[in-house]
Automatic annotation (TrEMBL):
It comes from Phytohabitans aurantiacus. Belongs to the binding-protein-dependent transport system permease family. It is found in: Cell membrane. This is Sugar ABC transporter permease. CDD domains: TM_PBP2 (cd06261). PANTHER family: ABC TRANSPORTER PERMEASE PROTEIN (PTHR30193), INNER MEMBRANE ABC TRANSPORTER PERMEASE PROTEIN YCJO (PTHR30193:SF37). Keywords: Cell membrane, Membrane, Transmembrane, Transmembrane helix, Transport.
Length: 316
């Protein structure tokens, strides 16, 4: 009897393979979901590390050594290269020229960009007229730096178009890019002409994003167009204007190609900028350690503006 019961007893319960595999599969999916973003970001992070982090680290290390690259055995010299750069009259002149260049360019970009954006946003002009003006005003932004440099060098040549118009109107010919008293201002004008369309388009987009109800409410309260401009337009555009100004300060401080292809930093260093000074130290004088120190100083100055811009964006 007992043997019969044993023969017909059910086999012991065994966990199904799917039940055991379920926690493992869930863990793999969670692991894949957690690591997938890093897998997508890894190519970009590798490129940033190879093309930016490593070169910056190398330049910083070069700035603390004697003349590197051209010498086989470099030694640590501490802050001697920074002292040499900061006491160099050419560097101080380049710093002053860069300050004037970026300050005047940024202010002019804001004023011109705002003025042309207001004109293109006004209802007094038809759509066809606005389209034509937009095409004309955007042209300087479409040209490459090389084309802009060549065009303006030809126009500002002593026998160029600008001097021809001056002599035709009874004036005298001017060496715009060769006169020490005019070269920096001529170069600044070229940079302003080349850069204001970007400000115009950005500010125009900001103007078109201002709700019309604000102007209607201001008009009902009896505000004049000038009051509406200062109390409605400017406050609404303030984030755009500040962001564009900080970005322009960063971009203009790094301007090199336009300066090098028009004046090369001359005459008599009146258009020498931090970018051209660093380039000449490295590839004209072969003072790579000094050039590295100058590049680190420029990097620190730019980082101050970059930190300000990032904090501004976070506050917005």
């Amino acid at each position: 009897m007992n043997s019969a019961k044993l023969d017909h007893a059910p086999p012991p319960a065994v966990a199904a393979p799917e039940t055991r595999a379920a926690p493992r599969g869930r863990a793999r999916r969670l692991w894949a979901r957690g690591t997938a973003p890093y897998a997508f970001l890894s190519p970009t992070m590798i490129l940033i590390f190879v093309l930016m982090i490593i070169p910056i680290a190398m330049v910083v290390s070069y700035s603390f050594k004697d003349n590197v690259i051209v010498q086989q055995n470099s030694v640590f010299v501490g802050f001697a290269n920074y002292t040499k750069v900061l006491t160099d009259p050419d560097f101080l002149a380049a710093l002053k020229n860069t300050f004037v260049f970026i300050t005047v360019s940024t202010v002019a970009h804001l004023i011109l960009g705002l003025g042309f954006a207001l004109m293109l946003n006004t209802p007094l002009l038809g759509n066809v007229t606005k389209a034509i003006f937009r095409i004309i005003y955007i042209l300087p932004w479409l040209f490459t730096v090389a084309v802009i440099a060549v065009i303006w060098r030809l126009m500002l040549d002593p026998s160029g178009v600008v001097n021809y118009l001056l002599t035709t109107l009874g004036g005298s010919s001017v060496d715009w890019l060769s006169d020490p008293g005019k070269a920096l201002w001529a170069l600044t004008f070229i940079n302003i002409w080349a850069g204001f369309p970007f400000f115009m388009i950005s500010i125009l987009a900001g103007l078109q994003g201002i709700p019309g109800d604000l102007y209607e409410a201001a008009s009902v309260d009896g505000a004049s167009p000038i009051r509406q401009f200062w109390n409605v337009t400017i406050p609404q555009l303030r984030p755009v204007l500040i962001s564009m100004a900080v970005l322009d300060l960063i971009w203009t401080s790094q301007q090199f190609a336009l300066i090098w292809m028009t004046t090369g930093g001359g005459p008599l260093n009146v258009t020498e900028m931090l970018s051209t000074y660093t380039y000449k130290q490295a590839f004209s004088s072969y003072e790579f350690a000094t050039a590295s120190a100058a590049a680190v100083i420029v990097l620190l100055l730019t980082m101050v503006l970059a930190v300000f811009y990032v904090r501004l964006q976070k506050e917005r």
